[in-house]
Amino acid sequence: MLRSSTTAWASKRASHMQYRALGKTDLEVSVVAFGASPLGGVYGFTGPEEGKRAVHLAIDEGINFFDVSPYYGHGLAEYRLGAALQGRRNKVILATKCGRYGANEFDFSAHRVFASMDESLDRLNTDYVDLLFAHDVEFGDRSQIVEETIPAMRRLQELGKTRYIGVTGFPLRTLIDIARKVPVDAILSYCHYNLLADDLDAVLAPVAESRGIGMINASPLHMGMLTEQGAPDWHPAPSEMREAAKSAAEFCKHRDCDISDLALRFCFDYPKVATTLVGMATREQVLKSLRAFEALADPQIVRKVRAIFAPVFNRFWSSGREENQ
Ligand code: NAD
Questions:
Q1: pLDDT tens digits along 185-195
Q2: Which of 27, 111, 254, 307 has the most CB within a 10 Å radius?
Q3: What's the pTM value of the predicted model, to 2 decimals?
């Protein structure tokens, strides 16, 4: 995977996107998906016009799955994505979330779920979404999620405001416990399958597969850590993990390879998830992600990078309520 100019590469290519079924739903999602949290400034400032062009380019290149949340930039990401999708809504599978509205702001009540859905539809400029997720369920009361939040989301499905529903979060056991208690169509997990972690495969995949629940893998770059610029300041990973990621990025650079290309390709190759959500806000990132999808990774470099990561592999941090760890 050589560091050639992305634009030169892009001018020579044709789209070869692949699609996979999302669990038992009738949604066929592109293997590379567009995570819209960066459109809300989660990773720093991004220009709105460039964000719109990135969304248009992604659609033109066959990316059909877009994920957002009211939490990303306090509505900004939904608003920008909605504006970018004007006239293109029917070309995409659109997911948003409810329940999380700030770093420490959660409300999983039915009342809030209903209001949140209407606010999201308004910002997204559409009258339905394809998927509605309860966002970061480990911050909620598990029995409320099961008995109140999910039933409210099913009611929204009956009303035609969302086609399917699901849950997102960090601790896999909490996601599994909820899915065992109440049926969900999809589970979105992040930072549990990439070059720094793979327990999604042993822990979540068997349960999801046996129940026909669609799996979505988010944060293939470990929330920006597997990039040349490194993790953002707010990243919750332990410092040893950051250091290992820095060493691996340096090693790749000396081999004329970009660690992000390697990391993305590793995730796109994992067949048990329907799609991998990459956080993007620029055309350059869209093209880089597509290039990673189409290029082959050098197995020797992958082996060496995995050796660098061995001491910190599958190291996690706590997220949410104590009883949900
Ligand atoms: P990520 O691992 O995709 O990393 C995003 C960072 O990498 C951004 O800084 C982006 O600018 C950069 N980047 C993107 N493409 C790149 C490339 N090809 N080369 C180098 N750098 C690149 O992390 P993420 O954005 O947190 O996750 C992806 C998406 O998944 C989110 O946008 C969101 O939609 C979803 N997500 C959901 C949850 C949840 O529901 N709890 C949690 C995490 C992520």
A1: 999 999 999 99
A2: 27
A3: 0.95
